[in-house]
Write a structure and sequence with these properties.
Elements: E1 8-13, E2 17-18, E3 22-23, E4 27-35, E5 38-47, E6 54-55, E7 64-67, E8 74-85, E9 87-95
Antiparallel strand pairs: 1-9, 2-8, 3-8, 4-7, 4-9, 5-6, 5-8
Length: about 100
């Protein structure tokens, strides 16, 4: 039996701000999705301790999927410039707690 893939809504961002973070240590093959219709500059960030944040690659201004590094413990989005729209984010991956 394969392990389940469970999407988790992280947070929506409207304006220049960072989303709430989510702990992802219980996920394998984690991906972070940024969705919505927006005019903004967004970074996906990871952290080992939920305090010190590291940008994953370049910023983007369109919905995107980012494969997260296996050593990431927390993830969030950080909007550094905003004109309009709603920025939605979601993380998904294989559940480490599943049997299979």
């Amino acid at each position: 039996m394969s392990k389940s893939i469970t999407p988790r809504t992280v947070a929506d961002v409207t304006g220049v701000a960072a989303s709430a973070s989510i702990r992802i240590t219980d996920l394998e093959e984690a991906s972070y999705w940024v969705l919505g219709t927006f005019v903004a500059t967004v970074f996906v960030q990871t952290s080992p301790d939920d305090t010190n944040w590291i940008d994953l690659g370049a910023s983007f201004a369109i919905p995107t999927k980012t494969v997260l590094p296996t050593d990431a413990r927390f993830v969030r989005i950080n909007c550094t410039a905003f004109t309009s729209g709603d920025i939605e984010s979601q993380v998904s991956g294989r559940d480490n707690d599943s049997k299979g």
